């Protein structure tokens, strides 16, 4: 023993030495890691036009050509960019605008107006915003005064005065385009499209929407004036491409300061991509949703996991398959099952009673009294396993379930109705209940048995 | 007019007379009197505050007339320390030529006008004063005496405020009145102790004045505003050579009283304002001085009462404004005659007596107008920067009149005025010894003078500039620095021509419609009648374009005098925020006026329903008529009712999409007025569309003939909308350009290109969307189909679909889908509107429907 210790003394020193070395390494690592985190977070969270476009080159080409024609030739155009949420509509237009503005002769000659259907909820607000962004002469400071009618006629007059060759083209970007169609008479859209179809100030009206039936929302006159150009973004890529995107999204750029680290990191990402469990996770995720935003979400939550790890030790600087799996689990977790895990036994019993009622009465609504009776039946049979709670206590548990929104009243709660007899519906599926019960800690066997069959006592 | 001695001819020296009244709070001395000594001559003129003076002007023959309000010395001015504040009068020749007709009569030779223009500067260099003059105020119904021997008497009858001539307000009358009432005091010899003025003496004095008046003028006892300075005082003053006009004192003491009232410093400014109605505007505009607009209404009332009083008490209420002309002594004669012994009755100090006088009189003569004290507030004026403009305008006008004017004079005048302006803030009169008494008086006398003095400062605060929309903002998008490029290639040229906005020289395929509309409008124009026409047709059939074309042709014809000239107005229901706004737009385009909707409706009704001077017909195009529908249909009613009146001469062309709009949405009385002149534009047939395309692409070989025919047929089958047709072709040129990248041979647009364009525009995106959706989304759609099939309904709750979905996933070997995942999938599909879903707060119970036909879903899911 003593010898052993003696033996180990130099070794111990060695370890100490190396640990000091690794400490300095750690400092460097930590620095790089924070940089990596910054880069990746920017990529995932900000819709920066720096990131690459995936699989939308054709659409991009179409859009940029269109914008250029408006900017350079003064040709009026209107186009809708349609695609499900997270398919990169905004990224596409941002990319295109960025590229457009890099052209010197264009950047000085183009006005942009950005509107969002969620912000400009009616034409009055939208008009003021347009006037403000165009900085017309009736803008005072940062505000626009005057009535709706005045502003409309002023703006129309302004746009009417222009002509193709001499006035500044205006690019209108209408985000959440479908919400603009709900405005009264669609006045704004009519006028924008009308101007884009007449020899006035050149306009490019670009609408972004996720609704596929957008054309049906347009009034016939508005529809006729719309040029019917549509750019569809459909996430039309397969799994191999998805993997490639995954890799590209995680890889560090070439301009990363430390070549060695970035090489190592990229190598790791490559390994990760080839890992079977990672592929499985990604495949599962791909099956649920193809859009890139959800991928970002997966990776980002993953990043958080790793952040936590990093703080503890820098010896785990790279992503692993386990991280990814954990993140995936987080993403695909059933939120209600989690709630059920936290319920008391009494509440679980009530839920089981409701389940039985649902089975018996075929999804008909129930009230507290019915549930209580069902529960009483069970308690009387298995008095030894479950404490016989008093009715008010059971009522309290029932109300708690309602607060958790695991049950939902059929009608609005009013003062007159007795709470015992208010009709309720269960917001849990049978499979959910059974799955949750299996994972429920310390569930009494009787209760579990009762859950599988209401007739288990027979 | 006699010649006045001006400074040009003789040098004059100006000096103050009397002790300066110094207010310690103010930084200048004020004086009551000034003496002007003409060099060489022995004459010495004394000018006192309250007297009417002649002031050196541009025109030697007609010097400016003003009432002296205040004399003071301003040390801050290097050159002219002697300043004066005046209330201007204006001669008729100084009124702008363009406004002279407003008087409505020929002005009398000696008529001047009270210059009621606040923007005019009243602060002048005292050394520009030439001498005194006599001014008599006349009532509105008095005749200006024509046979006056005394040329130096000027008459005031009206006031001029740069816009209108108005009778002198009663306030002014009372001011003169007050001055006159105070006159007895001034008659006191300077050294003599004051005696209380007895009312008999008063009346006597007035009688005298009356007598004099009657001698001077043809008029019988007419109420003339009298100058406070009674003749005797004048005489005495002149004799003694120690002039001390009571009027001066009054105004000064009055001002002193005002000054001493609480809140002095502020009020001082107000006071200087009060006592200085201005005439000549100066470039600077003293904006420190507060705007204190007088209420015209009040004056009006007072005026009327005053007039009544005047009639009743004509003997007492003769008002004479008199100022002595210093250089020429013609007035003297009259004055001597008017001499009357007047006993100043009061024992108390000058100030007190003076102030009490009006009160006494008021008590004794109930009919006397009560506005005495308001006189001080009458001339509240704002001085604005615009005063400079006014000055210039007046100058130009004078120049225009050809009045000779020496530049030197002007030069002298201007800088002096400027100097005086800059110093004006500090100027103030104050009389320390008087203060105690005056203040007590003020407290005793809660009359309007007090009020006004208190009110003035409250109005003083400068208006904080509130941001408001610029009145004359020109609607304009900024123009580009670089001109737009011109099309370079054939395809670009074609694209330009195919743009809907490109206006063709003629509208092919609408000749018949064009002719009908043209004939209709032309006949109405030629007959000088009105009428309505209703044009219907689906969008994109050239309704508006045809009407525009008709109007263009008619305008050309009008230029060639083939048809009478007409006015063309266009309104669009879609470009209005609200149906009633149509009135506003029509009115604005018709007359340029702006009004609210209701007012505009009235104005338009008046415009159309009454005989107008110009007999021009109006052609009104109302686009998108259906949007002008209101509950009461009053807008439509009016639009169709006006043309039925003979005087209106209104031709209304209305455009809407539906053929049976009059029957569907209009009340009987509206549709009956619309009449039966209707026209409907049929959708274009394929041959027409083809013709349109060919006419647009004349001389350009960009399309294959077959391709044009194809697109024409496609669109004709779909909608017959010409816009669609053009858009497809435009898109096809882009595709063509994009596909054949060879630089020099852009190539023709072929059928393939066009088909692709048609596909892009008209193909339903649902199927591609379903095809490209994720595995879970697809299986969820399948689950929906399965659930529909099971239940036989087209609607299912999420829970039902979920159980189907779970089963499906198990069958297909997919991992078990959790509820949350499935819900996300469902809402994703819902946001695309592939599914119609209820709001997600219903959770499991939300109902799901397909927005696509089941067959489409099945078709899309097949592969």
From TrEMBL, chain A:
<comment type="similarity">
    <text>Belongs to the ORC4 family.</text>
</comment>
<dbReference type="InterPro" id="IPR041664">
    <property type="entry name" value="AAA_16"/>
</dbReference>
<protein>
    <recommendedName>
        <fullName>Origin recognition complex subunit 4</fullName>
    </recommendedName>
</protein>
<dbReference type="InterPro" id="IPR003593">
    <property type="entry name" value="AAA+_ATPase"/>
</dbReference>
<feature type="domain" description="AAA+ ATPase">
    <location>
        <begin position="75"/>
        <end position="218"/>
    </location>
</feature>
<dbReference type="Pfam" id="PF13191">
    <property type="entry name" value="AAA_16"/>
</dbReference>
<keyword id="KW-0539">Nucleus</keyword>
<dbReference type="InterPro" id="IPR027417">
    <property type="entry name" value="P-loop_NTPase"/>
</dbReference>
<keyword id="KW-0235">DNA replication</keyword>
<dbReference type="Pfam" id="PF14629">
    <property type="entry name" value="ORC4_C"/>
</dbReference>
<dbReference type="InterPro" id="IPR016527">
    <property type="entry name" value="ORC4"/>
</dbReference>
<comment type="function">
    <text>Component of the origin recognition complex (ORC) that binds origins of replication.</text>
</comment>
<dbReference type="InterPro" id="IPR032705">
    <property type="entry name" value="ORC4_C"/>
</dbReference>
<keyword id="KW-0238">DNA-binding</keyword>
<comment type="subunit">
    <text>Component of ORC, a complex composed of at least 6 subunits: ORC1, ORC2, ORC3, ORC4, ORC5 and ORC6. ORC is regulated in a cell-cycle dependent manner. It is sequentially assembled at the exit from anaphase of mitosis and disassembled as cells enter S phase. Interacts with DBF4. Interacts with POLQ.</text>
</comment>
UniProtKB/TrEMBL annotation, chain B:
<feature type="domain" description="BAH">
    <location>
        <begin position="45"/>
        <end position="171"/>
    </location>
</feature>
<comment type="function">
    <text>Component of the origin recognition complex (ORC) that binds origins of replication. DNA-binding is ATP-dependent, however specific DNA sequences that define origins of replication have not been identified so far. ORC is required to assemble the pre-replication complex necessary to initiate DNA replication.</text>
</comment>
<dbReference type="InterPro" id="IPR003593">
    <property type="entry name" value="AAA+_ATPase"/>
</dbReference>
<comment type="subunit">
    <text>Component of ORC, a complex composed of at least 6 subunits: ORC1, ORC2, ORC3, ORC4, ORC5 and ORC6. ORC is regulated in a cell-cycle dependent manner. It is sequentially assembled at the exit from anaphase of mitosis and disassembled as cells enter S phase. Interacts with CDC6 and KAT7/HBO1. Interacts with LRWD1 predominantly during the G1 phase and with less affinity during mitosis, when phosphorylated.</text>
</comment>
<dbReference type="GO" id="GO:0005654">
    <property type="term" value="C:nucleoplasm"/>
</dbReference>
<dbReference type="InterPro" id="IPR003959">
    <property type="entry name" value="ATPase_AAA_core"/>
</dbReference>
<keyword id="KW-0547">Nucleotide-binding</keyword>
<feature type="compositionally biased region" description="Low complexity">
    <location>
        <begin position="437"/>
        <end position="459"/>
    </location>
</feature>
<feature type="region of interest" description="Disordered">
    <location>
        <begin position="187"/>
        <end position="314"/>
    </location>
</feature>
<feature type="compositionally biased region" description="Polar residues">
    <location>
        <begin position="245"/>
        <end position="256"/>
    </location>
</feature>
<dbReference type="GO" id="GO:0006270">
    <property type="term" value="P:DNA replication initiation"/>
</dbReference>
<dbReference type="InterPro" id="IPR001025">
    <property type="entry name" value="BAH_dom"/>
</dbReference>
<dbReference type="Pfam" id="PF17872">
    <property type="entry name" value="AAA_lid_10"/>
</dbReference>
<dbReference type="InterPro" id="IPR041083">
    <property type="entry name" value="AAA_lid_10"/>
</dbReference>
<dbReference type="GO" id="GO:0000781">
    <property type="term" value="C:chromosome, telomeric region"/>
</dbReference>
<keyword id="KW-0460">Magnesium</keyword>
<keyword id="KW-0238">DNA-binding</keyword>
<dbReference type="GO" id="GO:0005524">
    <property type="term" value="F:ATP binding"/>
</dbReference>
<keyword id="KW-0479">Metal-binding</keyword>
<keyword id="KW-0597">Phosphoprotein</keyword>
<feature type="region of interest" description="Disordered">
    <location>
        <begin position="362"/>
        <end position="482"/>
    </location>
</feature>
<dbReference type="Pfam" id="PF00004">
    <property type="entry name" value="AAA"/>
</dbReference>
């Amino acid at each position: 023993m003593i010898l052993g210790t003696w033996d180990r003394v130099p070794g111990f020193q060695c370890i100490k030495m190396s640990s000091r070395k690794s400490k300095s390494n750690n400092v460097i690592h930590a620095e790089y890691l924070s940089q990596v985190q910054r880069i990746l977070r920017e990529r995932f969270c900000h819709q920066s036009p720096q990131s690459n476009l995936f699989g939308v080159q054709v659409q991009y080409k179409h859009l940029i050509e269109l914008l250029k024609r408006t900017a350079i030739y003064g040709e009026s155009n209107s186009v809708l960019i349609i695609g499900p949420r997270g398919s990169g509509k905004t990224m596409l237009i941002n990319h295109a605008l960025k590229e457009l503005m890099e052209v010197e002769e264009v950047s000085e000659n183009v006005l942009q107006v950005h509107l969002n259907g969620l912000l400009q909820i009616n034409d009055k607000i939208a008009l003021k915003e347009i006037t403000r962004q165009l900085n017309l002469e009736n803008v005072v400071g940062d505000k626009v005064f005057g009535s709706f009618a005045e502003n409309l006629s002023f703006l129309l007059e302004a746009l009417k005065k222009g002509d193709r060759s001499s006035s500044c083209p205006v690019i209108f970007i209408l985000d959440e385009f479908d919400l603009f169609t709900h405005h009264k008479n669609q006045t704004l859209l009519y006028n924008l499209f009308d101007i884009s179809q007449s020899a006035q100030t050149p306009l490019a009206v670009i609408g972004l929407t996720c609704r596929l039936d957008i054309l049906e929302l347009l009034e016939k006159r508005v529809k006729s004036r719309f040029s019917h150009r549509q750019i569809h973004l459909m996430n039309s890529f397969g799994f191999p491409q998805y993997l490639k995107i995954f890799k590209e999204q995680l890889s560090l750029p070439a301009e990363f300061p430390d070549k060695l680290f970035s090489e190592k990191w990229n190598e790791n990402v490559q390994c990760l991509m080839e890992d079977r469990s990672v592929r499985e996770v990604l495949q599962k995720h791909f099956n649920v949703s193809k859009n890139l935003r959800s991928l970002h979400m997966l990776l980002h939550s993953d990043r958080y996991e790793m952040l936590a790890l990093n703080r503890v030790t820098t010896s785990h600087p790279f992503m692993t398959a386990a991280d990814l799996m954990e993140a995936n689990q987080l993403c695909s977790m059933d939120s209600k099952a989690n709630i059920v895990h936290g319920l008391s036994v009494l509440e679980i019993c009530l839920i089981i009673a409701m389940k039985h009622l649902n089975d018996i009465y075929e999804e008909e609504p129930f009230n507290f009294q019915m549930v209580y009776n069902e529960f009483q039946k069970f308690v009387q049979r298995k008095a030894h396993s479950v404490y016989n709670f008093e009715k008010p206590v059971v009522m309290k548990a029932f109300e708690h379930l309602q607060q958790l929104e695991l049950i939902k009243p059929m009608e609005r709660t009013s003062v007159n109705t007795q709470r015992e007899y208010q009709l309720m519906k269960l917001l849990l599926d049978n499979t959910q209940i059974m799955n949750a019960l299996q994972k429920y800690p310390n569930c009494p066997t009787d209760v579990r048995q009762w859950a599988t069959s209401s007739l288990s006592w027979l | 007019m006699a010649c006045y001695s001006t400074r040009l001819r003789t040098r004059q020296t100006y000096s103050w007379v009397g002790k300066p009244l110094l207010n310690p709070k103010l930084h200048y001395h004020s004086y009551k009197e000034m003496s002007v000594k003409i060099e060489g001559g022995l004459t010495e003129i004394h000018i006192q505050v309250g007297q009417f003076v002649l002031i050196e002007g541009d025109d030697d023959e007609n010097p400016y007339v003003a009432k002296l309000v205040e004399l003071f010395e301003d040390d801050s001015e290097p050159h002219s320390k002697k300043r004066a504040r005046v209330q201007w009068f204006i001669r008729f020749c100084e009124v702008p030529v363009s406004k002279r007709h407003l008087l409505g009569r020929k002005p009398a030779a000696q008529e001047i006008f009270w210059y009621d223009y606040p923007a005019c500067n009243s602060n002048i260099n005292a050394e520009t004063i030439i001498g005194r003059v006599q001014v008599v105020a006349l009532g509105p119904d008095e005749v200006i005496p024509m046979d006056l021997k005394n040329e130096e008497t000027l008459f005031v009858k009206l006031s001029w405020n740069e816009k209108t001539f108005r009778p002198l307000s009663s306030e002014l009358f009372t001011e003169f009145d007050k001055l006159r009432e105070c006159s007895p005091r001034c008659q006191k010899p300077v050294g003599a102790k004051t005696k209380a003025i007895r009312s008999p003496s008063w009346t006597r004095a007035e009688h005298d004045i009356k007598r004099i008046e009657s001698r001077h003028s043809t008029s019988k006892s007419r109420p003339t505003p009298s100058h406070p300075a009674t003749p005797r005082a004048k005489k005495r003053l002149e004799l003694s050579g120690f002039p001390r006009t009571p009027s001066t004192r009054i105004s000064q003491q009055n001002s002193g009283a005002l000054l001493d009232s609480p809140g002095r410093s502020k009020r001082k400014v107000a006071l200087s304002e009060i006592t200085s109605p201005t005439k000549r505007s100066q470039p600077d505009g003293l904006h420190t001085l507060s705007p204190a607009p007088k209420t015209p209404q009040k004056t009006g009332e007072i005026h009327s009462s005053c007039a009544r009083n005047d009639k009743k008490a004509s003997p007492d209420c003769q008002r004479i404004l008199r100022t002595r002309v210093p250089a020429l002594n013609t007035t003297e004669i009259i004055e001597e005659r008017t001499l009357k012994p007047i006993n100043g009755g009061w024992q108390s100090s000058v100030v007190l007596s003076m102030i009490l006088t009006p009160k006494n009189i008021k008590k004794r003569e109930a009919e006397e107008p009560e506005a005495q004290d308001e006189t001080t507030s009458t001339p509240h004026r704002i001085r604005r920067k615009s005063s400079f403009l006014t000055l210039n305008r007046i100058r130009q006008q004078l120049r225009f009149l050809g009045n000779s004017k020496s530049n030197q004079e002007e030069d002298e005048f201007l800088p002096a005025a400027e100097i005086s302006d800059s110093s004006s803030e500090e100027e103030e009169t104050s009389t320390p010894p008087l203060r105690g008494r005056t203040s007590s008086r003020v407290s005793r006398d809660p009359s309007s003078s007090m009020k006004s003095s208190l009110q003035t400062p409250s109005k003083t605060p400068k208006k904080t500039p509130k941001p408001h929309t610029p009145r004359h903002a020109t609607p304009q998008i900024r123009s580009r620095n670089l001109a737009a490029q011109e099309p370079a290639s054939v395809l670009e040229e074609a694209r330009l021509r195919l743009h809907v906005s490109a206006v063709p020289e003629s509208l092919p395929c609408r000749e018949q419609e064009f002719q009908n509309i043209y004939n209709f409008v032309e006949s109405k124009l030629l007959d000088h009648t009105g009428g309505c026409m209703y044009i219907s047709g689906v969008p994109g059939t050239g309704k508006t374009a045809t009407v525009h074309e008709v109007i263009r042709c008619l305008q050309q014809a009008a230029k060639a005098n083939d048809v009478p000239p007409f006015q063309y107005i266009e309104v669009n229901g879609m470009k209005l925020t609200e149906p009633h706004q149509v009135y506003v737009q029509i009115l604005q385009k018709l007359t340029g006026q702006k009004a609210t909707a209701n007012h505009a409706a009235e104005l338009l009704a008046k415009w159309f329903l009454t005989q107008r001077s110009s007999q021009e017909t109006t052609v009104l195009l109302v686009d998108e008529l259906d949007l002008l529908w209101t509950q009461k249909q009053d807008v439509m009613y009016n639009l169709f009712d006006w043309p039925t009146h003979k005087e209106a001469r209104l031709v209304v062309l209305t455009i809407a999409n539906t053929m049976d709009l009059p029957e569907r949405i209009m009340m009987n009385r509206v549709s009956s007025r619309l009449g039966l002149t209707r026209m409907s534009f049929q959708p274009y047939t394929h041959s027409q569309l083809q013709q349109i395309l060919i006419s647009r692409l004349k001389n350009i070989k960009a399309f294959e003939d077959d391709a044009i025919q194809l697109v024409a047929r496609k669109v004709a089958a779909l909608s017959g909308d010409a816009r669609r047709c053009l858009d497809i072709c435009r898109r096809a040129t882009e595709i063509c350009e994009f596909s054949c990248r060879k630089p020099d041979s852009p190539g023709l647009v072929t059928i393939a290109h066009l088909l692709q364009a048609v596909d892009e525009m008209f193909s339903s995106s649902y199927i591609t969307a379903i095809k490209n959706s994720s595995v879970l989304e697809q299986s969820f759609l399948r689950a929906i189909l399965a659930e529909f099939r099971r239940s036989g309904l087209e609607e299912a709750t999420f829970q039902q679909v979920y159980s189907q979905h779970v089963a499906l996933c198990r069958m297909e070997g997919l991992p078990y889908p959790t509820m949350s995942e499935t819900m996300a999938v469902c809402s994703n599909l819902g946001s695309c509107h592939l599914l119609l879903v209820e709001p997600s707060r219903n959770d499991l119970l939300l109902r799901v429907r397909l927005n696509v036909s089941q067959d489409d879903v099945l078709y899309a899911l097949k592969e």
